[in-house]
Every structure is written in structure tokens, then in C-alpha cells.
Inverse folding.
């Protein structure tokens, strides 16, 4: 009679192999889960040097006219994401942005945390802001930046059902911080921009107007071309990877 003798070393080898298979399965499931999460667009995979600068307008309005003048001086188109309540308070500024050739897009109606309200309320927030913008500009927004950058798959899927695209950013100027200076804002933006970047600024931050000329001039000198976000992104035949980068597919 023959006996099968298994050594301790062989047992350990088998257990390691099994563990490796289990971890591989777990890893694959985790990667799948990440890739299946609905994401907004943070930036765009581009071979050219096109980028976009955007401004969120939710509260004050002291610097909007100044920003329009600076953008005109450097011949730069910008995308402004405005809150419906801001539109109610400053309709003339919305009109001025539109007439200056900038795009006015959606930033919700009352600036709530979208993950803390119902899907129906999210739709109401988006559609109400769209109506207010369209009543002034004659153009219905196609893009939205969710308030506070607060989203989950349900929020993004809701945006998609409205035939709109959710837009985040990959370059945050941090111009809203109390410790921000014109120099820190400019240095941060310039150092982080790459082809396909979406830059986030605010229309009423203390030092943004002072930092903006340096940002625009330096990036243009580096060969970057500013375009609207709607021109930067792909409208169809694309995928969004797990970092939020939009990638063109054939």
C-alpha cells in the first residue's frame, strides 16, 4: 500500500496559493466596484494643450465685473457655474457674463448637499436653476457643478438622465481660503495644470482678480489654449476612468 506524505512545506505552499487566489478575486471585485461607480468629469485626456478655467458663483458679486475685464484683456473664455439664488440677486451680472461671451452653467438652485436630498429634489434643483439661466441668456445649460463637490452614483446618474454632464476639477486654486494670497493662488494653479485640466476658481474670492492675470499670461506663454469646458470635454464615445479623467474611445 502506498501512502501520500505531505510535508509541512507543501501545506504552506498550497495555503499560500489558495490565499493568493482569494486575494486576487477580492482585488478584482474591488477594482470592478471602483470602475462601476458613476463619476463626474474631473479632467480630459487630451494630446493638445487645451484647458478650461471656471468660476463658481454662489454668494457675493463684488468682483464679477473685474473678472470679465481681465478675461477680455487676455482673450480667455471662461465657464461660470452659477447658483439659481445668485441669478435671482444678480440678473444683470448673468446678462453681462453672457454678453461678454462666457458660458453660464448650472451650480444648483439653492446650493444644498446633493447626497442629503432626494433624487426628485436634485432634479428640481437642477431644472429650476436651468430655467433661471435660460430666461436671461436664452440658452439652457448642459453642464452642472454639484455644490460642494458633493456627489454619489445616484446624483451623477440623475444628472445624466437630464442629458447633462457633471463637472468637477483637477486644479483647485484654493482661492477661497483665508490664508490664500495672489501669489499662492497663481503658483498653485500654474504648477498643477496639464493638458485637459479644468481649473476651479470663485467669482468673489479676495485675491482671485489679483492672481488671474499672472495665471492667464503664464499659461498662455506656456502654449496652453483656454476653451470652454463644453469644448474641452467629449460629447460622446468616451469613458471616465476611476480618477475622473474623461477618455475618448473609438
Amino acid at each position: 500500500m502506498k501512502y501520500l506524505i505531505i510535508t509541512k512545506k507543501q501545506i504552506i505552499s498550497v495555503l499560500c496559493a489558495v490565499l493568493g487566489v482569494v486575494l486576487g478575486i477580492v482585488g478584482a471585485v474591488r477594482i470592478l466596484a471602483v470602475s462601476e461607480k458613476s463619476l463626474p468629469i474631473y479632467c480630459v485626456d487630451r494630446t493638445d494643450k487645451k484647458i478650461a478655467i471656471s468660476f463658481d458663483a454662489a454668494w457675493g458679486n463684488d468682483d464679477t465685473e473685474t473678472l470679465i475685464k481681465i478675461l477680455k484683456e487676455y482673450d480667455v473664455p471662461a465657464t461660470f457655474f452659477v447658483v439659481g439664488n445668485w441669478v435671482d440677486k444678480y440678473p444683470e451680472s448673468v446678462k453681462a457674463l453672457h454678453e461678454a461671451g462666457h458660458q453660464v452653467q448650472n451650480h444648483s438652485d439653492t446650493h444644498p448637499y446633493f447626497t442629503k436630498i432626494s433624487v426628485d429634489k436634485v432634479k428640481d434643483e437642477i431644472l429650476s436653476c436651468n430655467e433661471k439661466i435660460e430666461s436671461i441668456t436664452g440658452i439652457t445649460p448642459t453642464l452642472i457643478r454639484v455644490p460642494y463637490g458633493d456627489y454619489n452614483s445616484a446624483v451623477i446618474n440623475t444628472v445624466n438622465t437630464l442629458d447633462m454632464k457633471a463637472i468637477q476639477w483637477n486644479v483647485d486654486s484654493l482661492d477661497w481660503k483665508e490664508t490664500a494670497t495672489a501669489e499662492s493662488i497663481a503658483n498653485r494653479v500654474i504648477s498643477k495644470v496639464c493638458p485637459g485640466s479644468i481649473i476651479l476658481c470663485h467669482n468673489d474670492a479676495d485675491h482671485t482678480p489679483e492672481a488671474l492675470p499672472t495665471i492667464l499670461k503664464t499659461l498662455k506663454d506656456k502654449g496652453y489654449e483656454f476653451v470652454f469646458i463644453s469644448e474641452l470635454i467629449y460629447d460622446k464615445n468616451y469613458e471616465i476612468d476611476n480618477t475622473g479623467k474623461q477618455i475618448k474611445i473609438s
The two ends are 64 Å apart (CA to CA). Residues 18-35 have pLDDT under 50 and may be disordered. Residues 1-36 form one domain. The chain has nine helices and eleven strands.
